[in-house]
Amino acid sequence: MSVIDKFFKFKSNTGDFCTAVIVAAGNSQRMGRDKIMMPLGDRPVIAHTLAAFQKCEHIDEIIVVTRPERLQKIADICQEYDIDKIRKIIVGGKTRAQSALLGVLEASENAALIAIHDGARPFVSEAVIDRTVNSAKQNHAVAPAVYATDTVRIVNAKGVTVSTPDRNTVALIQTPQVFDADLIKNALMKAVKSNLRITDDCSAVEAMGVKVTVVAGEQTNIKLTSAADVYIAEKILADRGTDK
Q: Does some domain include residue 33?
């Protein structure tokens, strides 16, 4: 019996109920300021992110994982911008894996799928969310991605080129990453217990031998990490012709 069979043979969740876990517990060290709460257009970054999931029919509830000092601020944002799918706003852990785990464990018992998204990706579209969720109904672990347009080279610790992969096979993974609820709960629990260093949630299920399916992402679904990203975000907002 394969790893995937072990987890789905006794699967009890039915239906399409999908919980969105928005991870916004980082300290914004590389940005130099609070990228989750900083203004983007006429509202904070996190308000844009939450609105995207609020509008999506495939999302049934939203859980936000954040820092203690942001709890009330995010609650106020949810009220101001009518984010009525919000179920809980909780404090995250010391690592990304810990924060994601805390979030998925708060998902409704009705949740068949869990979508985990970076709070600092404010431009995720309804189309990307829909595409990823729909694929996860059949494929169990799915992530959106865009493909590399620059030449990619693998280098060693000394900065010397080791290999040059075909850029047509290099996928730049985005979020939301959508999983069967039982699968991601087990994967993150194992990752946290073993102190596995992961940079995204797909890494946790891959560590269990589960393959991840990739669907089309969008170039505008950027993650705000540096000051340069803020400049790009403002341009995206301007091109959309609205601050909303």
A: yes
